[in-house]
Amino acid sequence: MRKNLKHLKPSVLFLLAGLFICSAVGAEKVKPPQPHGALPTEGQLLWHEMEMYAFVHFTINTFTDKEWGFGDEDPALFNPSDFDADALALNIKSAGLKGIVLTCKHHDGFCLWPTKSTDHNISKSPWRDGKGDMVKEVSDACKRHGLKFGIYLSPWDRNNKDYGTPKYIETYRTQYRELLTNYGPVFESWHDGANGGDGYYGGARETRSIDNTVYYDWDNTWKILYELHPNAVIFSDIGPGCRWVGNESGFAKDPCWSTITFEMANPNRKPTPGSSIKNLESGTRNGKVWVPAEVDFSIRPGWFWHASENDKVKTSAQLLDHYFVSVGRGANMILNVPPDRRGRVFEKDAASLAGFGQMINQLYKVNYAKGAKATASNVRGNSKEYAASKVLDASRYTYWATDDQVKDASLTLSLKGKKTFNVIRIRENIKLGHRVNEWAVDIKENGVWKEYAKGVAIGSCRLIRGERVTTDAVRLRIINADASPCIGELGLYAEPQTSTQTLTDSKQKDASKKLWKVLSPSTAEAQEGALTIDTHPNTFSSLPSGASLTVDMGAEVEIFGFSYLPRQDRSSNGILDRYEFNVSKDGVTWEKAASGEFSNIKNNPIEQRISLSKGVVARYIQLVPVRTLEGGKATVAELGVLIAK
Ligand code: FUL
Predict the structure, then answer these.
(1) Of 25, 117, 593, 638, which sits 20 to 30 A from 214 (CA to CA)?
(2) Is residue 68 domain-shared with residue 140, that is, in the same domain?
(3) Residue 338 pairs with which residues in a beta bridge?
């Protein structure tokens, strides 16, 4: 080379040197855009990349048919007949889920590992002759199958005698340290917001309330995690890693910002896990902190497995719907898959999971944007590094960017021929924050641009699910942004044809209400009482204070259980969380048939089904509201009776 240069004329050498200097100076000039607003941490970036994973709710409740155990359950009840962690991991993997968060301890206090902190643990159960460690089996299976592992450790412990005192916090931290030390890497640490209430508490059987703003001293508890797993993400209502999405129904609001400034229902309280926060579902545009939403919901109505819900398993197509309204709005999706009493994923749940996984695979099999020519109305410093084509490569962090002052811009994909699709995926490079506000996507029809979709916020993932279209050009328009747009991906996909599964399997069915009459309350409001048996889930009745709801079924029926549907309008006022059901043959002499609590009904207002251990014959039924949420007048959307199939 040196020899060759010698033969070049000095003027040519001068020109080459000039070109070299210019390009070097040019490269220096095109500085990357400044990040905007609150930003994700390294751990949060890894978490965003996972997008969806499983929750596994499994404990003594599976064997007692409850959603919340009281804490007085005998550990001998915990005895899955055929638990297989590999099978569980494979079921979860078949859905394309990337990890498992296991309920190592739910509110009943039963620990799924042989902890030193309490006797209320798996070593006192007959499972694996008291030598089992379910946390180990699940975390090991995760490693074998390439899944990440996370822990759920309920702060509320209805078994522990010390709950409510400083001593319990020490116990909780011991449990936390054991879980974080003995089971390998942890990607998420889950701390639900249920805080205090009735419980066994070592035999005291009382109500204990705690002040959740101070009691758990989370900063010091979470230090243990930061020390041992610096990249793990902490879930609680307020993060700091990710936040609750504000419902357990399986959706995020549109838009759902990953940034948030917590707005308290009671402005005098400080935000803590378990406190009422108004804007969890939507977050805040330009919010103070990056605490993205996590959408937690179950493949069944409840969080634990109940035989009565075997015919209510969400279909693959329904799971796909949830995927679009959670992951598609920039949140992560945590799908609960509760094992049955064998310790296996029930066959219908397994089929839905596998079907969903296939749909996701088919959806992303072909990116119809591949091979397109990408151009943009503005490219940052005209540099290749920020070129429009960066939205087509495999990385979400290489990106198309505009000059700083350009906050409305467009990017056009001229496709390689005509393509048919109905799903568009857009990602911002979130390392630089949430920047884009309003955007639109156009498609070219007969040479003319036509708006296909429009929205607010992009973030880590925005999925547009629309009509199938065939076109050879697509345009992304950034209508306005808080900082110059930085778009990491623009992909075009086609959703597979979906098939709806028919799921039926339960020993009980709902009795017909055709002959039913509401007998009381008999005030003017009783007219409204009829709404409780009109089979319309969206109507409800408020009972007068202290009143029970009495129904004449018109004929004697053998009753195997009751159902109660709380109001479905997203208000919790007057929802029953303690109930009593009475029955009578003549409407004069009454007998108590069932009583108890409707656990978790505030967060998950689904139909509650109470099974009786044996059938009872009656013509009259009575629902006594023992306690209501927010102390309001009892509200009932539907009252039902379960009979044999
Ligand atoms: C809630 C709990 O009370 C439910 O039982 C369930 O574990 C859900 C994921 O979180 O706060």
Answers:
(1) 117
(2) yes
(3) none
Residue type (1 letter), 211: D
| Per-position DSSP letters for 508-564, written without gaps between them | EEEPP-TT-EEEE--STHHHHHGGGGSS-TT--EEPPTT--EEEEEEEEEEEEEEEE
Pocket of ligand 1 (CB under 6 A): 67, 192-194, 296, 303, 600, 603
Which ranges constitute the DSSP H helices of 51-165?
61-64, 85-94, 134-144
Same domain, 489 and 529: no
Residue 119 Cα distances to 74, 116, 126, 565, angstroms = 11, 7, 14, 37
Name the closest-CA residue to atom 1, ligand 1: 192
Q: SS3 of 128, please? A: helix
Respond yes or no on whether the N-terminal peptide bond of residue 126 is cis (omega within 30° of 0).
no
By three-state DSSP, how is residue 374 classified? strand
Q: Which residues contact 188 (CB under 8 A, 6 or more apart)?
A: 47, 53, 99, 101, 148, 150, 151, 232, 233, 234, 235, 241, 242
144, 100 Cβ separation under 8 angstroms: no
Q: Which residues, at least 6 apart from 346, have a Cβ–Cβ distance to it below 8 Å?
A: 305, 310, 313, 339, 340
CATH value at residue 482: 2.60.120.260
Amino acid letter for position 397? Y
pTM of the model: 0.84
Q: Ligand 1 centroid vs 250 CA: distance in angstroms?
A: 13
Summarize pLDDT for 516-551 with one digit per residue, the tens.
998 888 655 556 677 888 888 888 888 888 889 899
Could you tell me the CA-to-CA distances from 439 to 204, 436, 453, 475, 554 in Å, in that order? 58, 7, 9, 11, 59
**Rounded distance, CA 140 to CA 144, Å?**
6
Domain of residue 344: give its range: 60-363
Distance in angstroms (rounded) separating the CA atoms of residues 425 and 454: 13
Task: Report helix, strand or coil for 21.
Answer: helix
Q: 333 — phi, psi (to 5°)?
A: -110, 125
Give the residue whose CA is nearest to atom 4 of ligand 1. 600
The residue-averaged pLDDT of 180-198 equals 94
Q: What is the mean pLDDT of residues 178-191?
A: 98
Clarify whether residues 530 and 464 are in a common domain.
Answer: no
Classify burial at 61, counting beta carbons within 10 Å of its beta carbon; exposed 0-12, middle 13-18, buried 19 or more: buried
Alpha carbons 640 and 186: distance in angstroms, whole number:
43
Cα-flanking dihedrals φ and ψ of residue 613, to 5°? -70, -30
- Determine phi and psi for 592, rounding to 5 degrees: -75, 130
The C-alpha R_g of the chain, in whole angstroms, comes to: 29
Tokens representing 607 are: 């139909």
Looking at the domain assignment, is residue 443 inside a domain? yes
Distances (CA, A) of 332 to 123, 260, 276, 411: 34, 16, 21, 27
Cα 131 to ligand 1 centre (Å)? 28
DSSP 427-472: EE-GGG---EEEEEEEEEETTEEEEEEEEE--TT-EEEEEEEEEEE
pLDDT of amino acid 623: 94
Q: In the listed set 470, 493, 516, which residue is the last one of a domain according to the structure? A: 493
Determine the residue of 191, 248, 599, 629 to mutate for testing ligand 1's pocket, defined as the one with the most ligand atoms within 8 A of the Cβ atom: 248
543 with 488, same domain: the answer is no
